[in-house]
Predict the structure.
Amino acid sequence: DGVTEVLAHRSDNLRDKFIEIPCSEDYDSHKRFEGCTPRKCGRGVTDAVITREEAERIRRIAERGLSLGGSDGGASILDLHSGALSLGKHFVNLYRYFGDKIQDIFTEEDFALYRDVRQRIQHRIAQVFGISSSAMYLTKPTFFSRMNSTAAKTTHDEYWHPHVDKVTYGSFDYTSLLYLSDYSKDFGGGRFVFMDADSNKTVEPRAGRVSFFTSGSENLHRVEKVQWGTRFAITISFTCDPEHGIGDPVL
């Protein structure tokens, strides 16, 4: 792995940390949207946008939803937008599968909090990258993840491979992660790693911490395997292309 630097320790309380890095050429092979498509690239971490208490409330939404299913392997996802929920070795559509019972699991307040948190993260990304928040659109997949040390059963469970979001998803221009649990307290391993040519830069999750970055090859990354405990996070992604925009989930 070579040299590893820690960008954000769990014990840090970061108002704003931002590191600018040169943009890759990934954006050139897609249509450019003036005032949104990255011209300034980089990565940031902030503990000042979402409170720990809000993160705990959001984690409870994830826990309730994931209690209905869960992967046989170590990585489960819940996507409130599409309804995708890990179940055994497959996925089911939460809304079709559970129908009206959904009202017993989630409340309007849950979805309002989700929306509010998403908007605040969107505004912060826009502010840091000097773009207009209204030029950015939520895009899919945007999902909760729950990871533990259970061995992978399918390729969906293998979350630890290095990847580039723009290459994997195409529509992504800005990616964010809101952490919902604490590194070294709730789980071991599971740090987020930016893989640079000269060194690895890690972010240690803590509840309420937001890590965000431009989605191109300038931010090749992976997640370490979780060694013990349970790691919760939500990935919230944005595109500059209105055709790839999605709405907030509604109950």
Remarks:
- The CA atoms of residues 127 and 133 lie 8 Å apart.
